[in-house]
Specification:
alpha/beta, Rossmann fold, Pantoate--beta-alanine Ligase, Chain: A,domain 2, 2 domains, 6-stranded parallel β-sheet, 3-stranded antiparallel β-sheet, 10 helices, 19% strand, binds pantoate
């Protein structure tokens, strides 16, 4: 399986192998691939004749330099995992920063209509402008028909849909369900930074979300927030950054339950300097 490090080489390879009337799927990643990525890639393979997987740790979406520095990088292993899918339809694009950004790294600013102001946007200022900048750039490089994103980053998925609308990009976004470890922990590249024992502790995050879902019928948002906060009171391993119940479309926090509105619970938790997020549909 070839790894293309420049957009020109990638585009040449796409033109060489792409057949007329075929569709091109795209799975953008930051590498350190896990089963969650592989299931997105498998869906893309099932639905398209050719699939580009990008592996690029995007500097502009990190608001914390230590997070960027420690972000796991494992290109050789990623390549082996992609090869294990046994498909000849995958092209890997693993560029250096200048192939994506040119000589000077810059971030565009977008008006995502308030979606960027909630949750991750509050706690990671500038994060979504960085995501929007790189995804728009990658879409221009790859020109996919379909692009696949996981629902673990549900707010990101909403932002990408908005980005496509704002930039009138001719790509269809496909959201895919969260992949979980046996203990319920949402799969994330960041999990590799946790010891096995810490991964065991982190299973509590999804256990809490499941309980919130059960309680959602009888408790209001404040009661649920209070209950969740309380679950972390004496936890020596996990610390809660935020818990929010939001309208799934606007991502605005729920005040009083409204009819015909779909709600989702969102959570961010730290174990040492490792930040984990998760979410669950409530109704
Ligand atoms: O979800 C990710 O891994 C990243 O935010 C993305 C979409 C690849 C952009 O860098």
């Amino acid at each position: 399986m070839n790894v293309f490090t420049t957009k020109h080489a990638l585009q040449k390879a796409i033109s060489a192998v792409r057949e007329v009337n075929s569709t091109l799927g795209f799975v953008p990643t930051m590498g350190a691939l896990h089963e969650g990525h592989l299931s997105l890639i498998q869906t893309a393979l099932d639905e398209n004749e050719l699939v580009v997987v990008s592996i690029f740790v995007n500097p502009t979406q990190f608001n914390n330099s230590s997070d960027l520095e420690h972000y796991p990088r494992s290109l050789a292993l990623d390549k082996t995992k992609l090869e294990s899918l046994g498909s000849s339809k995958i092209l890997i694009y693993a560029p250096e920063v200048d192939d994506v950004y040119g000589e000077a790294i810059s971030t565009s600013t977008f008006d995502f209509g308030g979606l960027e102001a909630q949750m991750e946007g509050k706690f990671r200022p500038g994060h979504f402008d960085g995501v929007g900048t790189v995804v728009h750039q990658l879409f221009k490089i790859v020109s996919p028909d379909f692009a696949y994103f996981g629902e673990k980053d549900f707010q990101q998925l909403a932002i990408i849909n908005k980005l496509v609308e704002l930039t009138e990009s001719p790509v269809q976004i496909v959201g895919c369900p969260i992949a979980r470890a046996e203990n319920g922990l949402a799969l994330s590249s960041r999990n590799t930074r946790l010891s096995l024992e810490e991964q065991g502790h982190a299973a509590k995050i999804f256990a809490i979300l499941k309980e919130v879902k059960q309680k959602f019928g009888t408790k209001n948002a404040n009661e649920l927030k209070e209950w969740v906060n309380h679950q972390f009171d004496n936890d020596a391993v996990l610390s809660l950054e935020y818990f929010e119940i939001s309208d799934e479309i606007t991502l605005k926090p729920m005040r009083n339950k409204q009819p015909n509105t779909v709600y989702r619970a969102f959570i961010a938790v730290h174990i040492r300097d490792v930040r984990l997020i998760d979410n669950i549909a409530l109704n």
